[in-house]
Amino acid sequence: MLLLPVLFFLITTASSTRTPPKYQIDLNEDPFQRWDQVIQDHLDYLPGVVAESKKYIPKPLQPFVWWVASKVERYFPTETRLELEGIAAKSGLPLGEIVGLNILYDIAAFDRRHVFGLGCTSIVAQNSAGQIFHGRNLDYDMTGLLKNITVYVDFMRNGSVLYSGVTFALYTGVLTGQRPGAYSVSLNARYSGAYIDNILMEFYTKFNLPVSFFIRDVLEKQESYEDAVSLLSKTHLFSPSYIIVAGTKKNEGALISRNRWSAANVYPLDMDANHWFLVETNYDNWQKQGDDRRITAIRKLKQLGKANFNEKSMVEVLSTAPVQNNLTVFSSVIVPARPEVFDGFTWIWD
């Protein structure tokens, strides 16, 4: 019932949107077969996505990167490795290309902002009643291709939803997700350091923690907002990132600016100090911004105000240009205290 008013609201605020197809991944099933239906439904789009993704790796390094990608899956946890092998078998694509696509963020997250246009936006806002809202626009250069393979997934265990995420066919990690009734997480790219820093961290961590795999693992195993924020702040990762977390209680919202070793900064919500929202794009929030997305979102949030802020208010912020732009693939509003909002308020921009 939630979906109909949401769709009506979106139709009145956007020229063309659609909801992503929804799937269930049963964690009790054989990992090799879990993604079969997702892959089967998207076979026509997959080769083009893999071909385009190769352009994001510096050309002189491509032979080395794809060779390493074909070898590193042996270091992944068993279930992750079997899921990737199953996707390769079902899609007919080489395993190295599947692994490479799944760690594309990690091997491309270095100081190369000049290569990109705009990027992702994540927002956590708290209304005057202490209700927490998490907004997310995922932007990426492969916009048209990614829209065709965007999926909403409920990860099930013993017949119940353990966690949910918006992800892509071929991609087993999670960049936007929710643990129902507990917390939500979104990742924005942070471009910092040299390419060699990523390679060194990959070897140091023995390829165990690509950031999207790590976020999925946190959603699967950490039951509380506090534990999720602690782990997301302290664990060594391949690559720099901004990780935005929202909870269910007053002031449960945090913007984690990640270095490869640990957090450079953790900035929390603080209603008592009138810090009732957090906005992150792709720049350190304590430094000059490279475009107008963050200042536009802040202006819109202040205009709407915290008194009556709700999920539809967040839709307004996410739909405002240039927060929403030509690179925006999908948008989500998540309210971890009301898990059904995530499904009903996720849409692809056409």
How is this structure best described in words?
By secondary structure, the chain is α+β, with helices and mostly antiparallel strands. It folds into 2 domains: about 5-20 and about 115-350, Penicillin V Acylase, Chain A (4-Layer Sandwich); about 30-110, no CATH class. Helix content is about 35%, strand content about 25%. Pathway: Lipid metabolism; fatty acid metabolism. Heterodimer of an alpha and a beta subunit, produced by autocatalytic cleavage.
Give the number of DSSP strands: 14
The percent range for strand residues is: 15-25%
Helix run count: 14
Biggest β-sheet description: 8 strands, mixed
* Poorly predicted runs of 5 or more residues: 7-14
Number of domains: 2
CATH topology (fold) name of the largest domain: Penicillin V Acylase, Chain A
CATH class of the largest domain: Alpha Beta
Elements, N to C (H/E): HEEHHHHHHEEHEEEEHHHEEEEHHEHE
Helix percentage range = 25-40%
Give the CATH architecture of the largest domain.
Answer: 4-Layer Sandwich
- What is the fourth-level CATH superfamily of the largest domain? Penicillin V Acylase, Chain A
N- to C-terminal distance: 23 Å
Gyration radius, to the nearest Å?
19 Å
What would the principal axes of the Cα set say about the shape? globular
